[in-house]
Amino acid sequence: MEPRFSFLGAHRVLCAETPSAGRSLRGQLSRLVALALLVPFSIGWSPVHTSGPARSSPVDQIVFVSDRDFFAHVYVMDPDGSGETQLTTGDTTDRAPRWSPDHAHILFQRLGGQECLCIMNTDGSGLRRVPLPPRAHVRQGFSWSPDGHQIVFDAVGPGFATSLVIVGSDGSGLHKVIADGEFNTMPDWSPRGDRIVFVRGTPNSLWTIKPDGSDLTELTTTDDYLPRWSPDGSRIVFERRTYPGSDIWVMNADGSNPVNLTSSSATYVNDWPAFSRDGSQIIFNRRLVAGSGYDLYTMTADGSNLRQLTTDGHSFSPDW
């Protein structure tokens, strides 16, 4: 381990030496000063560190919502569940936080008297609204484009029905992707940028569409929700409702090879899945069918190695 010294510590070491007989007091002081100046440079001095263990960088962290204090606010934590930090406060409800592609910003919806689609820095600073027309309101879901310059969201309001809409992160260039009178919601933009997966119709099944509104394609025909792309765009993870609960499923990007990862819908509601940055793990919410408190869990992308991250019954809507 590299030696670490404070100036006080170095002074104590040097003063412990016994001066030779016959040396003048001036000579002793000169020697102490010379050694004190030499020690930091010859040993490689650095300040004493008193802080705790290093925190994960925002790239590694999980963002989520907690309503432990009645109002729902945005938090971040490390992948092992430690180091929780609250980012938003106040008497508003914040929901559905999403990391920007570079993990430099967080997109979320604020409800209440200050309703907005909002963007903030990873430490909660720099909060700003995404300017939207007064008639366009976010219904439930939104997602960044791969370059972080645009946002797709499900819009409701006069003239919008439940449409998928794209807007610049600065509020510019708002236009509809699909507005055909069907129920279109919960969009997620593929990391390759070529398709958007979303929930459509009744029952709610999963579809994809190109960002220009062409090539509408149905992927599933069952009661499916909350689709999310894998980081490489090859798979989609989602919630499938098989009452009384629901399970986390994964399938190929074309809808083939669907696999149940949790197989516990008789006991649990498992929902809000998202892949880790490297695609090796999935994070999701879980609560008992007869309960109301959500906690966060992770598992490997094949459904093994289930791990509970929170135990307060007030943690949900994660993104990794």
Kindly describe this structure.
The protein has two domains: 7-43, no CATH class; 62-319, TolB, C-terminal domain (Neuraminidase, 6 Propeller), CATH 2.120.10.30. It is mainly beta and 320 residues long. Residues 1-54 have low confidence and may be disordered. It is built from two helices and 24 strands.
Walk me through the topology.
Elements: H1 7-15, H2 25-43, E1 62-69, E2 71-77, E3 85-86, E4 93-99, E5 105-111, E6 116-121, E7 128-129, E8 137-144, E9 150-156, E10 163-168, E11 175-178, E12 184-189, E13 196-200, E14 205-209, E15 217-218, E16 224-229, E17 235-242, E18 245-252, E19 259-260, E20 268-275, E21 281-288, E22 295-300, E23 307-308, E24 315-319
Antiparallel strand pairs: 1-2, 1-24, 2-3, 4-5, 5-6, 6-7, 8-9, 9-10, 10-11, 12-13, 13-14, 14-15, 16-17, 17-18, 18-19, 20-21, 21-22, 22-23
Helix pairs in contact: 1-2
Which terms summarize this structure?
320 residues; 24 strands; four-stranded antiparallel sheet; 42% strand; 2 helices; 9% helix; Neuraminidase; mainly beta; globular
CATH-defined fold name of the largest domain: Neuraminidase
Number of strands: 24
The helix/strand order is HHEEEEEEEEEEEEEEEEEEEEEEEE
Q: How many helical stretches?
A: 2
Which stretches of 5+ consecutive residues score pLDDT under 50?
1-54
Considering DSSP H and I runs of 4 or more, what fraction of the residues is helical? under 10%
**Mean pLDDT value:** 85
Structural class: mainly beta
CATH architecture assignment of the largest domain:
6 Propeller
